[in-house]
């Protein structure tokens, strides 16, 4: 137990010494981040029916994949293309006085270390999908403004997400659908589309 406490203290000292304080008392450190070839979906704090598309990332010392909601500087400077995996260097700031409705951590882009094509082969996958009775607002990563999107749940997934279009599907609001769909990923140029195979039920 004593050895564990010593090790813990040592790790804390290393962490503190690797950070620096700015004039506001915020703690900063330089980190390496992985930006993934596909994006993620997240909600907004004060809205229950508007969703956004965000970059997916992890850090070299934290391999958990998360959506990047606190890195506006990275969005502005990375020149992101779907289908590519990026390694970047960023400044991670632990805010002493974070905004009331914001994160206590912020990321700022420093430079791109590498950019590699990650999705190199076309693929097709068939599965069932549930489509909800009302549409939701959706803010795309690469387009401005709020668009209306289907609210869907793919079989095997835990959460619903917005989806702009299913080719061949004539949606009528007020009904819950169960569909057979095909997801087609094209590697070059990168694109993802959903195509209706058949309607299982409409209630």
UniProtKB/TrEMBL annotation:
Name the InterPro entries on file: DUF4377
Q: Pfam families, per this entry?
A: DUF4377 (PF14302)
Q: What is this protein called?
A: DUF4377 domain-containing protein
DUF4377 domain: residues covered: 77-115, 149-202
Q: Which superkingdom, per the lineage?
A: Bacteria
- Keyword vocabulary terms for this entry: Signal
Q: Extract the signal peptide range.
A: 1-21
Source organism per entry reads Zunongwangia endophytica
